[in-house]
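Fold this sequence, please.
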Amino acid sequence: MEFVATKNLLKCFKNTNVLSDIDLTIEKGEIYGLIGNNGAGKTTLLRIICNLLQPTKGEVLWNKQAFSSKVPMGSLIEHPALYFDMSAYENIKAKAIALGVKYYKSDIDALLKLVGLENTDKKRVRAFSMGMKQRLGIALALVGEPDLLILDEPINGLDPQGISEVRNMLLKIHEERGVTMVISSHILDELAKIATRFCVLHKGKLVKNCSKEEFMSECGDRDIDEYYLQILKENE
């Protein structure tokens, strides 16, 4: 079922096309793995979907309607905005207040448990590991119970344990809350463990949009990175 759709998206910076004619339909309940080299346009596309950046041309539709402030969406683009001298609990409470969302202690405790930060008590965020900070950033994106979660490189810079923790947390969120997700990453092996669909951006164009099953079937016995590079070569 269509949930979000981009129509003929074009984004130019200083007469350079960063995105060209992007038509992408995001279906409810899916997890989209967004793949692309640096400069392919991934972050720009995600920022437009989040209404943080306006397209030069085209539009983003939510349930076939124009974007509005009431769209139930959460996002983590680049680094999470955290209060380092506050606890995880206090960060979530502050975000709820900022959004005008009524969150009781039980709501915050449930969210902390969902992201594996239930035992942090009054520990200040500045003492958190990078993985813990990233999980808190995702928790903040979930304040208000959004239907769509946009994550830009959520495992970038994490060690193997941190990557595993974030991956398992995202699968848990999807299973328990049914949140539709769009996740960009350079680590294709990790995306393959969570995504239900793959989208490949190359030089600002959407060159591949298929189910994970179709992607892996076409990949065959090849290394997934090798197949990805073949896709790019075919679309030069």
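The chain has a mean pLDDT of 91. Strands lie at 2-13, 16-27, 31-35, 57-62, 65-66, 73-76, 148-152, 180-184, 197-202, 205-211.
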